[in-house]
Amino acid sequence: MKRMRLRAVLRDESGSAVAEFVMVVSLLTVLTLSVLQLGLALHVRNTVLDAAAEGARLASLADSGLADGAARTRDLITVALGPSYAGQVEASYGDFGGHSSAQVHVVAPLPLLGLIGPGRGLEVTGHAAVETLE
User: For residues 36 and 24, what is the distance between their CA atoms, to the nearest angstrom?
Assistant: First the structure.
């Protein structure tokens, strides 16, 4: 008789819904936050890449130079993301696709937890064909 009661107690599932709910909700919360963090990292990457391309376009114009392109890139990144993302911006002339081009290279933090992340986690380069007066 005691064995029958023990089996009945062990098979009783009362209270298991709460435990299942906690496990499922915690898993879904981690998954949701991970997707949001990935979206934030992609937003930061696209913003920095767009700012680098815009700075390269400005640097490639006939009446402006590399310093103008680098300054424009810094300004755009600072306004969009903050000054910590605009720390390393370098502009140079080079060759891209067989044509003379202006290049703006940006090294920024890659956000892994909110906006916090390793300092050299994201490197992007923007290119633009150099305009000549000939």
Answer: 18
Give the model confidence (pLDDT) of 50-64 as tens digits.
999 999 999 998 888
**Alpha carbons 8 and 115: distance in angstroms, whole number:** 52
Q: Helices in the chain by DSSP H: which ranges?
A: 2-11, 16-60, 66-80
Whole-prediction pTM: 0.80
Buried b vs exposed e over 108-126: b needs ≥16 C-beta within 10 Å? bbbbeeeeebeeeebebbb
How far is residue 54 from each of residues 25, 102, 125, measured CA to CA in Å? 43, 11, 11
Domain extents in the chain? 2-129
Do 109 and 88 touch, CB atoms closer than 8 A?
Answer: no
Total count of residues recorded for the chain: 134
